[in-house]
């Protein structure tokens, strides 16, 4: 693809909207020139053109907050690029995960800063569930001596179901006590054993999400 065939501004630049590949959160808007575009495709590390410094800019070069290119697309007019990235650290120089942390209150029309703006959102709840699922799946395909997960698979579906039942009861008991620490611990145990059951039954988190989506 020839960068010069795109609809560039008078300075030979094209605006770039950068999104988190996992959450689709918009992280920032910047510009690329031909060199930045070519370097991004060549290295898979996102480069921009700094209009203030008037030079090539490798995102994360000084902060370590690199952006690894995962997807690139053009809009219908071919005058704006969309890049989806795996963000390391945070995207904004202020320490916020996204540069778009200042909201406009639609009622008061005032600008307000979002709370917890430094919390990375790329590691979504679902991505953690999927990571645990994939580790369990790997254990099933590649057994490891002494692995509790392999012990459950070796014992079979009845043992797995028994553990799911036991952990469900532990959640109920833990929820009767003061504080949330025990609830968090027991729910985590339950989710792990449910994940083992899902792998055993060849059910994925996509299957679960699709079913939940029907119930909204």
From TrEMBL:
**Residue limits of the Phosphoribosyl-AMP cyclohydrolase domain?**
28-101
Q: Where is this region: Phosphoribosyl-AMP cyclohydrolase?
A: 1-128
> What does the entry give for GO biological process?
L-histidine biosynthetic process
Q: What is its EC number?
A: 3.5.4.19, 3.6.1.31
Q: Which Gene3D superfamilies match?
A: MazG-like, Phosphoribosyl-AMP cyclohydrolase
Q: Give the CDD domains listed for this entry.
A: NTP-PPase_HisIE_like
Q: Which reaction does it catalyse?
A: 1-(5-phospho-beta-D-ribosyl)-ATP + H2O = 1-(5-phospho-beta-D-ribosyl)-5'-AMP + diphosphate + H(+); 1-(5-phospho-beta-D-ribosyl)-5'-AMP + H2O = 1-(5-phospho-beta-D-ribosyl)-5-[(5-phospho-beta-D-ribosylamino)methylideneamino]imidazole-4-carboxamide
The pathway is:
Amino-acid biosynthesis; L-histidine biosynthesis; L-histidine from 5-phospho-alpha-D-ribose 1-diphosphate: step 2/9; Amino-acid biosynthesis; L-histidine biosynthesis; L-histidine from 5-phospho-alpha-D-ribose 1-diphosphate: step 3/9
Q: Which UniProt keywords apply?
A: Amino-acid biosynthesis, ATP-binding, Cytoplasm, Histidine biosynthesis, Hydrolase, Multifunctional enzyme, Nucleotide-binding
Q: Which GO terms describe its cellular component?
A: cytoplasm
Q: Where is this region: Phosphoribosyl-ATP pyrophosphohydrolase?
A: 129-216
GO MF term set: ATP binding; phosphoribosyl-AMP cyclohydrolase activity; phosphoribosyl-ATP diphosphatase activity
Give its localization: Cytoplasm
What's the family?
In the C-terminal section; belongs to the PRA-PH family. In the N-terminal section; belongs to the PRA-CH family.
PANTHER family the UniProt entry points to:
HISTIDINE BIOSYNTHESIS BIFUNCTIONAL PROTEIN, HISTIDINE BIOSYNTHESIS BIFUNCTIONAL PROTEIN HISIE
Q: What is this protein called?
A: Histidine biosynthesis bifunctional protein HisIE
Q: Whose protein is this, by species?
A: Vallitalea pronyensis
Q: Which gene encodes it?
A: hisI
């Amino acid at each position: 693809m020839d960068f010069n065939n795109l609809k560039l501004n008078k300075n030979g630049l094209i605006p770039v909207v950068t999104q988190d590949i996992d959450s689709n959160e918009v992280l920032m808007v910047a510009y690329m020139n031909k060199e930045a575009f070519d370097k991004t495709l060549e290295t898979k590390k996102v480069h921009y053109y700094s209009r203030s410094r008037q030079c090539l800019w490798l995102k994360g070069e000084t902060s370590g907050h690199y952006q690894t290119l995962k997807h690139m697309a053009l809009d219908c007019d071919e005058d704006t690029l969309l890049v989806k990235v795996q963000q390391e650290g945070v995207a904004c120089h202020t320490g916020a995960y996204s540069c778009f942390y200042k909201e406009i209150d639609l009622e008061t029309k005032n600008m307000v800063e979002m709370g917890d703006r430094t919390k990375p959102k790329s590691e979504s709840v679902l991505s953690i569930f999927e990571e645990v699922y994939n580790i369990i799946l790997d254990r099933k395909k590649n057994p490891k001596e002494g692995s509790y997960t392999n012990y459950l698979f070796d014992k079979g579906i009845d043992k797995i179901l028994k553990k799911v039942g036991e952990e469900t009861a532990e959640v109920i008991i833990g929820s009767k006590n003061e504080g949330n620490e025990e609830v968090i611990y027991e729910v985590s145990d339950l989710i792990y054993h449910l994940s083992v059951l899902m792998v055993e039954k060849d059910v994925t988190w996509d299957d679960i999400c699709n079913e939940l989506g029907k119930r909204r």
